[in-house]
Specification:
By secondary structure, the protein is mainly β. The protein has a single domain, classed as Phage tail tube protein (Pnp Oxidase, Chain A). Helix content is 8%, strand content 50%. Strands 1, 2, 3, 4, 5, 6, 7 and 8 form an eight-stranded antiparallel sheet that branches. The protein is globular, with a radius of gyration of 19 Å. It comes from Marinisporobacter balticus. InterPro entries: DUF2001, XkdM-like_sf. Pfam families: DUF2001. This is Tail tube protein.
Length: 145
């Protein structure tokens, strides 16, 4: 295997997120992951525990610099009215010095919680919005060279 140059490790500074088509200028960090659900399967005359995939769950966290009341404005009043809106999130990670970029589109995004208010003296504030999603598309991937 060829040696990888250190400058090819992708830098998160070039990450971006779009919420329903609008680019978020106040993005601090973004994570989306899939957890695979399994059931144990035991086979006759076999001491090993085997696995059968039974589904998956998508979840993540969107962290924003506290500039706007994003969580409250997206979900707050609708939640009190008994509505739960869904969203589309697109995340992109591109570094001009890396081998390429990756992009993922998440659909049926629902936010799990939002903070009404939080602050600390002499601290820059952030807002974390944990979410779940029901579908994803791998739009761009960084291929092995």
């Amino acid at each position: 295997m060829a040696k990888i140059k250190s400058n090819k490790q992708i830098n998160g500074t070039f990450g971006a997120v779009w919420l329903d088509g609008e680019k978020l200028a106040d993005i601090d960090s973004f994570e989306a992951k899939v957890t695979i659900n399994y059931e144990d399967v035991n086979m006759a005359e076999d001491l090993a525990t085997h696995k059968k995939m039974t589904g998956w769950a998508g979840e993540g966290t969107l962290a924003l610099k506290k500039v706007y009341s994003t969580g409250a404005s997206l979900v707050g009043e609708k939640l009190k009215d008994g509505q739960m809106p869904t969203f589309i999130l697109v995340g992109k990670l591109a570094d001009p010095d890396a081998y390429g970029s990756e992009r993922v589109s998440l659909s049926e995004v629902t936010f799990n919680e939002f903070t009404l208010m939080k602050f600390g003296q002499k601290e820059l504030q952030t807002e974390e919005l944990p979410f779940a999603f029901a579908d994803y598309d791998l739009v761009d991937l960084i291929e092995r060279r």
